[in-house]
Amino acid sequence: MIIVGNWKMFRGPDPHALAGLDAIVCPPFTRLRDCVDAGLTTYAQNVHWDKEGTYTGEISPPMLLELGVTGSLVGHSERRQYFGESDETVGLRTRGALEAGLHVVACVGETIEERRGGKTDAVLRRQLSVLEPHPNLVLAYEPVWAIGTGHTATPEIAQEAHAFIKSLLDAPVLYGGSVKPENAEALLSRPDVDGALVGGASLDVDSFTAICQTAARIRS
Ligand code: PGA
Q1: Enzyme catalytic residues
Q2: Among 94, 121, 202, 206, which is least packed, fewest CB within 10 Å?
Q3: Radius of gyration (Cα) for the chain, nearest Å?
Q4: How far does Cα 18 stand from its chain's mean position?
Q5: CA count, 13 A, side-chain hemisphere, 200
Q6: Does ligand 1 lie within 6 Å of residue 198's CB atom?
């Protein structure tokens, strides 16, 4: 069971308050070092595919590794929605990061219009077409309509999507989208839900700790 906290563009909690937690944190770039120094497994929220170059605003795999960062999110829906991230660049980022020795959590998921239009499977198939199995690759199913909205996918919807994703690509699949202490158990108990990618609730030490404890209980 893998629990990942995505702090997005928030400063986030004191990393020392999370010491000893079996989880991965994705703080903003300015807090990466604090999290590494506190002994947390620390991933970035995005990574470029090249070692260096004329790419203003980007960060490379070796730069992250040098800091003690061991992985990165790639293709989060907020990157796709607001910053023009495409399937092609998600594929490039994922491949570059994995080849450099980073772990990757690659995110996929449909919008509400796509779900209503019966396009969920086609969208997931397209998003996954740029990815290949790799021992350090984990996927996150994050239906866009459930992110930051309080509308969690039901455990049944999550299970169905996770099973479909795994039929296309063999990797652990995390669920993301309004995961909270109150719904974590039902979601994490589904057979193909291998963990959670937690946004809002990861900013609160008590909530995040409760989700990690639920995950540990289910695993044991
Ligand atoms: P949320 O965010 O838990 O606040 O919905 C999840 C995510 O975007 O990774």
Answers
A1: 76, 142
A2: 206
A3: 16
A4: 18
A5: 12
A6: yes
